[in-house]
TrEMBL record:
The lineage of its organism: Bacteria, Bacillati, Actinomycetota, Actinomycetes, Micrococcales. It comes from the Bacteria. It comes from Jonesiaceae bacterium BS-20. PANTHER family: BLL2464 PROTEIN, POSSIBLE CONSERVED SECRETED PROTEIN. Keywords: Membrane, Transmembrane, Transmembrane helix. InterPro entries: DUF58. Residues 208-377 form the DUF58 domain. The chain crosses the membrane at residues 21-38. This is DUF58 domain-containing protein. Pfam families: DUF58.
């Protein structure tokens, strides 16, 4: 993923230019010489001569070759955030007269900085910033100019093309999650209510056609039928698997500062937006469900693309995390006319800011279909410190409408969890401790 800094794409090649300090030195020395001649003062001429010689000498020390540099992205995981960095290395081996390159580094939401990179040296220039943002992120803006040995001449400015990286969402450890209302299949980590070959004991009964010999309980048979007139077998409950679907509303990506909503402001790298919170929450829910042996699927409600079908395993988790990282707003928010694809009886997590009625309509459709739905509020903690009076009024109206959407969601019997609340893990634990009625679906259909 390395890129070379060899020139601005499509720009006309530029030559070396004189530094403004050299221009000032030439003008000052020539002015002193002229002034010394007019005034007949030899001291002024003697003072200006070394300055003139130094300025002229600095114009001759440069190379016709242009130094080339290479950029490499660097990502490191931390305890609470990721360190996103870039390494700039010099690749020029024959560039006489050039010893340094001035590199200007900028990052969205921060001030730009000027750094020096040695030319013809193996020492790289590394810079990084700690960020909690996820998804497609633009790397540092880098531009470089070569400096002649005497620093009197400056080479042409070179810039790489815009470079992006995909930052996968972090996974937060969660307690045991609720189980879907329906468990299906003949294998899996969940306990069903029908008879099968599981590990959980159900009852003891007379042997019937279809029972296996290894199911015979000889102790109970010897006690109840000493003459072996009847055989008694132990019957166990069958194992099954549960399914969870994660639906993320990517139409909104707003930060904690309301004043910057709808603007081109990129946001601070140390503040998570609503979509960053949604990605982290979805990845954490997927990881906890997969660790419990459930099948997990994912769908982006904001973009019409193929969903990630329910699956299991570590590779499936990475597939979900990558799909979450690609979820982002695309143009104006669109109203979804069709309900998302959800397997029958699956537990559904809907992650949204609930700033409009679209998420509520999706939740209502899922509830009418008989699914158990858990709504995750992904709006970050709001700050209104720089709002004007009109902006504050607009935010109050938006907040009232949002509270209405949340209350209507609760009225549907849906549990609402605010992820920015420090107690969200305890809320999920309460849901696990008080599960709803489960329905077991076997090969012959669905029964209580």
């Amino acid at each position: 993923m390395a890129q070379h800094l060899t020139g601005v794409p499509g720009a006309k090649p530029q030559g070396w230019r004189v530094h403004h300090t050299v221009k000032f030195g030439l003008a000052l020395s020539l002015g002193l010489i002229v002034l010394g001649v007019l005034m007949g003062r030899g001291t002024l001429i003697a003072l200006a001569t070394p300055l003139l010689i130094g300025a002229l000498w600095s114009l001759t020390e440069h190379s016709k070759a242009q130094p080339t540099m290479r950029t490499e992205p660097v990502i490191a995981d931390g305890a609470d955030a990721r360190t996103v960095g870039m390494r700039v290395l010099s690749e020029t081996s024959d560039c006489p007269g050039v010893t340094l390159a001035r590199v200007k580094v900028s990052f969205a939401g921060t001030k730009s900085r000027d750094l020096l990179l040695p030319i013809n040296d193996d020492v790289p220039l590394e810079f990084s910033i700690t960020s909690v943002r996820t998804g497609k992120r633009d790397l540092f803006g880098v531009s470089a100019v070569a400096l002649a040995r005497t620093a009197g001449l400056i080479g042409p400015q070179v810039e790489p093309a815009s470079q992006q990286i995909v930052v996968l969402p972090r996974v937060e450890p969660l307690p045991a999650l609720p189980v879907s209302a329906t468990v299906r299949g003949l294998t899996g980590p969940r306990q069903s209510r029908r008879m099968g070959d599981g590990q959980e004991f159900r009852d003891v009964s007379l042997m019937r056609p279809g029972d296996r010999l290894r199911q015979i309980d000889w102790f109970i048979t010897a006690r109840n039928a000493p003459d072996l007139e009847h055989l008694y077998v132990r019957r166990n409950l069958a194992q099954a698997e549960a399914t969870a679907m994660i639906l993320v509303d990517s139409r909104d990506d707003v930060g904690s500062e309301v004043a910057f909503w709808g603007s081109a402001h990129e946001g601070r790298p140390d503040q998570m937006t609503s979509l960053d919170i949604a990605r982290t929450a979805a990845a954490s829910l997927a990881k906890a469900s997969l660790d419990a042996g459930d099948r997990v699927g994912f769908e982006d409600l904001g973009r019409p693309r193929r969903p990630v079908l329910p699956g299991t395993g570590k590779r499936h988790l990475e597939r979900i995390r990558y799909s979450l990282a690609l979820a982002q707003p695309l143009g104006a928010p669109k109203v979804r006319t069709r309900a998302p694809f959800v397997p029958s009886g699956a537990l559904v997590y809907v992650l949204s800011t609930f700033l409009d009625e679209t998420a509520l309509a999706t939740v209502a459709s899922l509830v009418r279909s008989g699914h158990r739905v858990i709504a995750i509020d992904t709006l970050p903690t709001i700050s209104t410190w720089s709002l004007t009076q009109r902006q504050m009024l607009a935010w109050r109206l938006t907040s009232l409408d949002r509270q209405t959407q949340l209350q209507l969601t609760r009225n549907l019997g849906v549990t609402l969890v605010r992820w920015s609340d420090p107690q969200h893990q305890q809320q999920l634990a309460v849901l696990t401790a008080t599960p709803g009625d489960r329905v077991v679906a076997g090969p012959g259909g669905t029964r209580p």
